[in-house]
Write a structure and sequence with these properties.
mainly alpha; DNA polymerase, domain 1; elongated
């Protein structure tokens, strides 16, 4: 009876053998065959790329938000700092400030460019943010577009004999003998000459606001620097911040740079060391040092 349960005939034994072979094949397939799906990897790659694109777009938005925004502003009230942000040079800013000091206002984009001499490209870039008073806007809208020929009345100038050929001693009447120099320009030249404590080089005359290059050339054909002015110089190592700002070619930012450099080196041994300052205007060096000494 016990033996009958463990006794198999030939067909049963063949079946058991085949079943064993199938189990071994199945186990080998599980161990050695890679059932991973390429499609799954591709899906993961797509998700990673989408995530990376989202990060890149957020970075671009953050960078754009950090850029300084130019809000509408009245160009008549541009400061040194605002002008520098807009891309204007110090010379262009100074021309605008000098014009405003005369009590006049800029009332159009063309007038702004004429006074500051900024390039067409810079004007196009910043003029979209100009905001003039309402009455100016209304006036421009109501102005007839037709171009009228301006009629100028030239007063006869009384003859005047120059008292000197030295530009540092020339009076208003002396300067007015030059064609193109009137009352206002002659006053402006003398005022700027006083600010400089006298012209030390001819190119300084070209810095006078409103004085055309060709007119300045005419002046220099008649008047020369016959004697250098006696400029009151100050020691760059002991001068105070406020005193240094009186230098006609030094603004607030440059003054800070000079003082920071002076703190680093303790004492300047020679004025040429100013050229070592990062951001120092090398084109103005020869004029800045007219008012400084180092000892």
């Amino acid at each position: 009876m016990f033996k009958s349960h463990f006794w198999y005939h030939k067909r049963q034994r063949n079946g058991i053998f085949v079943l064993g072979i199938a189990v071994l094949i199945f186990q080998a397939a599980i161990v050695f065959v890679d059932f991973s799906s390429d499609e799954k990897v591709d899906i993961e790659k797509v998700k990673i790329l989408q995530f990376q694109n989202k990060i890149d777009s957020l970075k671009a938005i953050a960078i754009e938000n950090r850029k300084p925004k130019i809000h509408p502003f009245n160009p008549n009230y541009i400061t040194d700092y605002k002008g520098a942000q807009l891309g204007m040079s110090l010379d262009q800013i100074d021309k605008l400030l000098a014009f405003r000091k005369t009590g006049n206002f800029v009332n159009s984009e063309k007038e702004f460019q004429k006074i500051t001499n900024i390039s067409d490209s810079l004007l196009t870039q910043i003029s979209s943010s100009f905001k003039f008073p309402d009455w100016v806007v209304k006036r421009d809208k109501n102005t007839n577009i037709t171009t009228f020929k301006s009629t100028r009345v030239y007063a006869k100038k009384t003859k005047h004999t120059s008292t000197t050929k030295d530009i540092n001693k020339a009076t208003k009447e002396d300067l007015k003998t030059i064609y193109g120099i009137g009352e206002k320009l002659s006053e402006r030249i003398i005022k700027y000459r006083s600010k400089l404590q006298g012209f030390s080089m001819e190119k300084q005359l070209h810095e006078v606001w409103g004085l055309k290059q060709e007119t300045a050339t005419k002046v220099l054909l008649v008047f020369k620097i016959l004697r250098l002015p006696n400029i009151q110089k100050i020691n760059v190592n002991t001068v105070t911040f406020r005193e240094l700002l009186k230098n006609p070619y030094i603004d607030y930012e440059l003054c800070k740079l000079i003082f920071n450099y002076r703190d680093e080196v303790a004492e300047l041994q020679d004025l040429t060391e100013l050229k070592n300052i990062s951001g120092f205007p090398l084109d103005l060096y020869d004029r800045i040092v007219l008012y400084l000494v180092a000892y």
